[in-house]
Amino acid sequence: MSKIRIYQNTEFIVNNTLKLSDDAFGHMVRVLRLNEGDIVTLFNGHQHNDKETFQYTAKLVDVKKKHASVEIMSQETVSNESPLNIHLGQGISRGDRMDFTLQKSVELGVNKITPLFTERCGVKLSSERLAKKRDQWQKIVISACEQSGRCVVPLVAEPMFLQDWISEHTAALKLNLHPKAQHSIMTLPIEKSANKLRVRLLIGPEGGLTDIEINQANQADFQDILLGPRVLRTETAALTAITALQCRFGDLK
């Protein structure tokens, strides 16, 4: 049986006992049907430095109908964050494509995701529905961290309009996909820095970005990059670009 990893945003101290959050309790006891004495791995998403995070071995105790606790048994250092920091600006897509993109991009090591409203995103949400959707997206990210072994939980930022996102000040390398670009990710004339390289990656929704949006991104210093001779769906484009970036600048070998 694979190791069960559960996220809970609290401080963990070895030899202490603490109550599980409602989400963690529901996952462990109601969904996974764990019993008192079962061993799990917990993490809280807190990063202690650029390389190290912690996860904790814990024993399920005091299991009741509506709550349970865990006894923290030991602490383990985890060093699986990429030396590449990727902030994904993802055009909001319909149906489960957005969910899939978020889940898989987290598995590939992305650090932050900002959902973007673009001309062709085709998704219109009230402020209340948007807040619920963002909460759902964050839960998908947490679940991807639980599955993939990551201890740092990427943030799903407040959704914003494309023009606002590309106008934000940043020292990161800015990249946008374009079928007629001069360079691919592998041929970009950039050397891997000794410091952690930061990248802002812009991916359009279904139908892509308009010519006007591409020009706006270029004016905001986004460099066009090529992924190959075939047209990729939005979710395929995002994951292919992240993979290529991790292969060249990150930790995929």
Describe the structure.
With 253 residues, this protein is α/β, with parallel strands linked by helices. The protein folds into two domains: 5-78, Hypothetical PUA domain-like, domain 1 (Ribosomal Protein L25, Chain P); 84-249, SPOUT methyltransferase, trefoil knot domain (Alpha/beta knot). Helices cover 29% and strands 26% of the residues. It has helices at residues 22-31, 97-107, 127-148, 162-166, 211-219, 234-249; strands at residues 5-7, 17-19, 39-43, 53-61, 69-78, 84-91, 112-117, 155-156, 160-161, 173-177, 183-184, 197-203, 223-226. The strands form two sheets. Strands 6, 7, 8, 9, 10, 11, 12 and 13 form an eight-stranded parallel beta sheet that branches. It has a five-stranded mixed beta sheet with strand order 1-3-4-5-2. A hairpin with a 7-residue loop joins strand 4 (53-61) and strand 5. The two termini are 28 Å apart. The model has no long low-confidence stretch (mean pLDDT 92).
User: Which strand-content bin applies to the residues?
Assistant: 25-35%
CATH superfamily grouping of the largest domain: SPOUT methyltransferase, trefoil knot domain
The secondary structure category is: alpha/beta
- The general outline is globular
> For the residues shown, what is the average pLDDT?
92
Measured on Cα atoms, how large is the radius of gyration?
20 Å
Q: In terms of per-residue confidence, which ranges show pLDDT below 50 for 5 or more consecutive residues? A: none
Provide a count of the helices.
6
Do you know the CATH architecture of the largest domain? 3-Layer(aba) Sandwich
Q: Regarding CATH, which class of the largest domain?
A: Alpha Beta
Largest sheet: 8 strands, parallel
Q: How do the helices and strands follow one another from N- to C-terminus?
A: EEHEEEEHEHEEHEEEHEH
Give the total of beta strands.
Answer: 13
Give the CA-CA distance, first to last residue: 28 Å
Total of domains = 2
CATH topology (fold) name of the largest domain? Alpha/beta knot
**Portion in helices:** 25-40%
